[in-house]
User: Which sequence fits this backbone?
């Protein structure tokens, strides 16, 4: 009989502790729970290459204006949820020009605001996209954001090994929807 009382008491204490732990867990969970909000609707971007970079030669120059120039425009489609926009240059021929002498600049025109980014092709490899615009927030469904892309061979950084080399690349883009936040 004594043994049954001891087992019953131990079982009662364990159940009581489990009950207290369950209530504590439920209380704490309700205090830290966040509401998740998600966008409703479609995600769609209108994107166009207005002026593609086409040239049979890339001559050394002292500034971007004497190099290659391309224009990309993008905006959210009507009733689209917010999104981020990326632009890439993918060299298909770059051997011998993947150096800091081959440069790019991107000017982003969004209404009255102009921002920019720049870099070079020193880390570029054939058929591997080089990100030149990353996670740009598109917010307007009415106004296009214009991306002016310049590529040039900096005359002050040219070496004899670069003479006669060929550069060929494509411009591409992708985007991702912003679906929610905690």
Assistant:
């Amino acid at each position: 009989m004594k043994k049954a009382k001891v087992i019953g008491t131990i079982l009662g204490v364990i159940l009581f502790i489990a009950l207290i732990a369950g209530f504590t867990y439920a209380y704490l969970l309700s205090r830290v729970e966040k509401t998740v909000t998600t966008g409703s609707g479609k995600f769609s971007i209108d994107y166009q290459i207005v002026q593609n970079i086409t040239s049979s030669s890339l001559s050394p120059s002292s500034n971007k204006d004497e190099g290659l120039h391309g224009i990309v425009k993008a905006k959210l489609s009507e009733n689209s949820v917010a999104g981020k926009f990326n632009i890439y240059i993918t060299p298909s021929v770059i051997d011998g020009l993947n150096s800091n002498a081959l440069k790019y600049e991107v000017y982003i025109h969004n209404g009255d605001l102009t921002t920019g980014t720049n870099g070079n092709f020193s880390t570029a490899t054939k058929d591997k996209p080089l990100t030149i615009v990353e996670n740009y927030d598109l917010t307007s469904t009415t106004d296009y954001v214009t991306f002016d892309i310049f590529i040039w061979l900096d005359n002050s950084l040219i070496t004899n090994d670069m003479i006669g080399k060929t550069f060929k690349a494509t411009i591409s883009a992708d985007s991702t929807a912003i679906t929610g936040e905690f």
Remarks:
- The chain has one helix and eleven strands.
- The two ends are 56 Å apart (CA to CA).
